[in-house]
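Anyone have tokens for Alpha/beta hydrolase? Sequence:
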Amino acid sequence: MICNIKDLNLNYEIIGDGMPILMLHGFFADSNLMSGCMEPILIDNKNYKRIYLDLPGMGESIGGKWIKNSDEILDIVLEFIEKIIPNEEFLLVGESYGGYISLGLLHKIASKVKGLLLICPCVIAPMEKRNLPEHVVLECDKDFTSKLSERDLHKFNERVVVQNSKTWQRFENEVLYGVKICDRELLKNIKENGYEFSFDARNLKEKFIKPTTMLVGRQDAIVGYKDAFEMLDDFPRATFAVIDKSGHNLQFEQEEIFNIMVKDWLAKF
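Reply: yep, here.
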């Protein structure tokens, strides 16, 4: 489906009926990142209307050249919400950059958000300001990885802590697919010149008192885990979990734990 905002055609998909859940993916990726981990949990649940949005310039959503920064991305998402689920409360799920946009939404429309799930969220935009562990590979099926091309192996090694055929398949389908089709020029410009909000995303105006789950990877060398924990006091109803043997893709590096934690969050509504 297409939602027109300004001169943009935003691609989105709605699955199911019931309480709306807005899913926001990471930078360079697309909505496959979210549907890949959330649909196996929700596919048999008839209580939720899942809304998978491709952010501007990502997936099949067109990115206008006028978009210069994350503030404008946030404004576009706000307009999308008003068009697709006006006057409705909703659950919010954000991964990586989608988590950053989710924090921005709490600054703008926290009263409409019934609950929050953050997966490896970006909470500090500038890479040089993040508190990051060194990247490590903790599990590797060398018989499998030896069959990958040099280019694919390099990408796999850069991003994935648990390396086997299953994690590769999901990395390829849910991460790399979006990276291949995004508007790289637009996103590079945002990343270099306007990635950070004009306000401090971590400094919420009020404590968010609704059920929250934040999942971070102990070996996540992209956004880290320590910065997220500095926000703990702003979420009185939060479950914060640092998951070992997982990096920036904990949803499929530790799939069983991820599924349990998401189901626990959903059971609160």
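The chain has one domain: 2-266.
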